[in-house]
Design goal:
Elements (H helix, E strand, L loop, with lengths): L3 E14 L8 H8 L8 E14 L10 H16 L2 E2 H4 L10 H13 L7 E7 L5 E4 L2
The chain binds nickel (II) ion (NI).
Length: 137
């Protein structure tokens, strides 16, 4: 029986966003989203952890080659979102509100389709040092 372990890769990107519901009044948006509703956007330094859980391959000793994972995260996530305005510059958040929750699920879906099915994927996204989201929950 193979041993199951979790391997992790930390990455980082900077992006701007604005949280608002377009059908709401300014007052309502301010009440719910506070500073994150700033009309001229604001930035976050996002820290991303990608976790893969699966069996250690008997030949390679790997669960998954972390260089390949790093390249995949760069291509699927960082090249899309780093130094971008998430609301204006990305297809993913044209209509989807770019909360940390939604960004986390979008990143999960982008990576999930590229990874072998036998590996479980989990995403942690830190929007600030103290606020972070985990998906799947
Ligand atoms: Ni914000």
């Amino acid at each position: 029986m193979s041993t199951i372990v979790t391997v992790c890769r930390n990455e980082h990107f900077n992006a701007a966003h604005r949280l608002y519901v377009k059908d709401w009044s300014d007052a309502q948006n301010n009440e719910v989203f506070g500073k994150c509703n700033n009309a001229n956007y604001h930035g976050h330094n996002y820290n991303l952890t990608v976790e893969l859980t699966g069996p250690i391959d008997e030949q390679t000793g790997y669960v998954y080659d972390l260089k390949l994972l790093s390249d995949m995260i760069k291509e699927e996530v960082l090249d899309k979102f780093d130094h971008k305005n998430l609301n204006l510059d990305t297809e993913e958040f044209k209509t989807l509100i770019p909360t940390a929750e939604n960004i986390t699920v979008v990143i999960y879906n982008l990576l999930r389709k590229k990874l072998p099915e036998h590996l479980a994927l989990r995403i942690k996204l830190y929007e600030t040092e103290r606020n972070f989201v985990i998906y799947p929950a």
